[in-house]
From TrEMBL:
Presence of keyword Hydrolase: no
Recorded GO MF terms: ATP binding
SUPFAM superfamilies, per database record: P-loop containing nucleoside triphosphate hydrolases (SSF52540)
Name this protein carries in UniProt: ATP-binding protein
InterPro entries: P-loop_NTPase
Keyword terms of this UniProt record: ATP-binding, Nucleotide-binding
Length: 649
């Protein structure tokens, strides 16, 4: 054990005494890293503040650059504690100047509320100062803010039994489907099923992510060939899981199908083919014309291989996940018999049961000191139509409006409902609209009946109502499922264009909506809100500086001095407020840099400020470029960094 780690462990014990009783202490190694590990029971007051009933894990290290392995080690220690430790909470003492944000982000990805305690000197605060630090770091993080698929137990609500049953049926050789509106949780449950299969069953699983460019750009023969090669690689390596390796082929469709059937015959264990984002290889994807008839060719040969395996006594399973079940329920496409009809079942992932939605809000909210009375839980679930992603986004907005100094706090229904209405107008309706637009693009037959719901006199057939209910558009009584859905339908109806009245074929000829469109709607709103806050911050600080320093120039002169001469001439005739409204983002950044001494206490690190401000200026939603998940994630982190510092003012 290093001397520095031993000294930091002793300092942590001394500082935490009074707030915690240390019940166990050790030095542990994990992936070439060295950590001190403590189990601690909080005082009654601290237990109440943190909502903790069990012991809390305290981890520490002396590295100047924190790595994700620290949080991975925390997750392992908690999982191995046999219920002794809090499952969603830990404290990490560290010496990385930028470690707080990294540790919180990694914690969210692992279903943990990480309370980071940074010390540059190895000395920690004591008593009330330490309590305030722990409370602030705990309450300012946003546990609702999860972007990617969720699979761990701490974040996976309401569908655990469903995923386990799905894995069992797939191992037994079933064909299953998982259709649903975008962001309903299809990919999350798919990843959970894959995890269940890896951990508990003797099966070989090949994952085909159809949204990948190299996958949906293939034709039917090429995709069969790619699946065949990937299966043969699995057989040769002895591994049980892989993602498809897309590769083009000059083979005829018949030869590709023959080799695919031959590859399946080489496995004794169950072979599971899991297709995600299936809409990208259907006729709905106007950006991949080869799948208009290639869809029938592909599924005709998959069905033949499946039946051949069954005759040979081998088990082959299929799992299909996507938005639209339409192409698996029509009898023909362009007069050609649809080989996928009745082969893939019409099964849906519907919104969460109301009890599961409430449990999700309650459990995640407790990680940020937010408690909700029963009526507030009901209001959130109803407003968000029990859609898990919509609930997270709405609760994230509520979280951002509650002062950290008054937490833990129990929120009542009237206050929550007011915040929900504001969220719906500013961001939620736009997010829900994107999901509906995507559904109507890949399943255009649902558009007219969905919009007719806005009229109280609409009469829909029982079949259409059942389908709309499965997508979460209507509830069990046939009424619009919630406020966000009604707002979104209203926005879609108001944006009627020429495309709304053209034939279905022309509607289908458009590329699919980006997977990240919901995120971009939220990013646009957050950036606009932040820009308004930054304008106000700049002029108020410049005014204060001008008033407190007799020798300084006016606030207007100070602002204009940071701009280019041409812009100064354009804006000189206006007053300060009007000038501020006309400033561009980069001009605001330039003013802050010019007057850094005024803003240093807010933003701290000038290099970090300019880096994050530059990322925000890049506007990933305003460029006609291929958008990667990393672009969206980086933009969201930059917004969070700036928002976190502005909110402290």
């Amino acid at each position: 054990m290093s001397y520095e780690l031993k000294r930091l462990a002793a300092e942590t014990t001394a500082a935490f005494t009074g707030l915690f009783a240390i019940t166990a202490e050790s030095i542990r190694q994990f992936e070439n890293g060295e950590y001190f590990v403590m189990y601690a029971r909080g005082s009654k007051r601290l237990q109440s503040i943190l909502g903790a009933e069990r012991e809390i894990l305290i981890l520490g290290n002396v590295y100047s650059d924190q790595q994700a392995r620290s949080v991975q080690f925390v997750r392992r220690l908690i999982n191995d504690s046999d219920g002794r430790l809090e499952t969603t909470l830990c404290v990490i003492v560290h010496q990385d100047p930028r470690g707080n944000t990294k540790l919180k982000n990694w914690g969210r990805e692992n279903g943990l509320a990480v309370i980071p305690v940074y010390t540059a000197t190895g000395v920690l605060p004591r008593n009330q100062e330490l309590e305030r630090l722990l409370s602030y770091e705990f309450f300012t993080q946003d546990p609702f803010d999860v972007t990617g698929p969720v699979a761990n137990d701490a974040q996976f609500f309401g569908r655990r039994a469903e995923a386990q049953e799905l894995a069992r049926k797939l191992h037994s050789g079933h064909i299953r489907a998982c259709f649903g509106i975008r962001k309903i949780g299809k990919t999350s449950i798919l990843h959970r099923v894959l995890s269940e299969l890896k951990d508990n069953y003797d099966a070989v699983t090949l994952f085909i992510d159809c949204q990948r460019d190299d996958v949906f750009s293939l034709d039917a023969a090429g995709l069969l060939h790619s699946i065949t090669l990937s299966l043969l690689d699995l057989k040769a390596s002895g591994r049980s899981y892989a993602e498809v390796n897309a590769s083009t082929s000059a083979l005829s469709l018949a030869e590709a199908a023959r080799r695919f059937q031959s590859a399946l015959s080489q496995f004794d264990a169950t072979v599971i083919l899991a297709f995600d984002e299936i809409d990208y290889i259907t006729p709905s994807n106007g950006g991949a014309e080869q799948w208009h008839l290639g869809f029938i060719e592909f599924w005709r040969n998959v069905r033949a291989a499946y039946h051949a395996a069954a005759r040979d006594g081998r088990r082959v399973s299929l799992l299909v996940s996507g938005v639209s079940s339409r192409w698996f329920s029509v009898e023909s496409i362009d007069g050609i018999e649809n080989a996928a009809l009745a082969f893939i079942p019409e099964e849906y992932l519907s919104p969460l049961p109301r009890g599961a939605a409430k449990a999700m809000i309650k459990n995640i909210g407790a990680m940020a000191g937010l408690r909700f009375d029963e009526q507030a839980l009901e209001a959130i679930s109803t407003f968000c139509c029990d859609m898990p992603f919509w609930i997270r986004k709405a609760c994230s907005s509520v979280h951002g409006k509650i002062e950290t100094s008054i937490r833990p706090i129990t929120l009542q229904e009237p206050a929550v409902s007011e915040m929900l209405e504001a969220y719906g107008r500013d961001e939620g309706a736009a997010l829900a609209k994107v999901a509906l637009q995507h559904l109507f693009r890949v399943y255009p037959e649902l558009r007219a009946p969905s919009l007719s719901l806005l009229s109280e006199r609409s009469e829909l057939s029982s079949g259409i109502k059942r389908t709309l209910n499965r997508y979460g558009i209507v509830d069990n009584t046939g009424k619009i499922s919630g406020s966000m859905m009604r707002m979104a339908l209203t926005m879609v109806a108001e944006e009627a264009t020429l495309q709304d009245v053209v034939g279905v074929k022309n509607v289908e000829a458009r590329p699919l909506v980006s997977e990240w469109a919901e995120e971009l709607a939220g990013i646009s709103y957050r950036r606009n809100t932040m820009e308004r806050a930054l304008r106000s911050l700049v002029i108020n600080f410049l005014r204060m500086s001008a008033l407190t320093n007799k020798d300084s120039v006016s606030a207007k002169a100070s602002l204009l001095s940071a701009l280019q001469s041409k812009r100064r001439e354009e804006l000189d005739a206006f007053n300060l407020e009007t000038i501020a409204d006309k400033l561009f983002w980069l001009e605001l950044v330039a003013i802050i840099n010019k007057n850094w001494s005024l803003f240093e206490r807010i933003f701290g690190d000038k290099a970090a400020f300019n880096e994050n401000a530059g990322i925000v200026n890049d506007r990933p939603d305003a460029h006609a470029k291929h958008l990667e998940p990393s672009d969206v994630a980086m933009h969201r982190r930059a917004l969070h960094w700036l928002d976190d510092r502005i909110s402290k003012v």
